[in-house]
Amino acid sequence: MGVRAGAVSAKTLAELERASGKLASATLAAMDSQFPWFSRMPADQRASVLLIAQSGVAGFTAWLKDDTASLRLTTDVFRSAPRDLSRWISLRQTVELVRVALQVFEGQVPDLAADEQERAILGEAVLRYGREVAFASAMSYASAAEARGAWDARLEALVVDGIVRGDAEEALLSRAAALGWDPAAEATVVVGNRPSDDPPTVVYEVRSRAARLGRAVLLSVQGSRLVVVLAGPTDDLLGEERRGRAPSKTVLDRITAAFGEGPVVAGPTVASLAEAHRSAADALSGLRAVVGWPAAPRPVRSTDLLPERALAGDPEAEWQLVDRIARPLEEATGSLLETVDTYLEVGGVLETCARQLFVHPNTVRYRLRRVAELTGRNANDPRDSLVLRVALAVGRLARARGLW
Question: Which domain holds residue 389?
Answer without folding.
Answer: 314-400
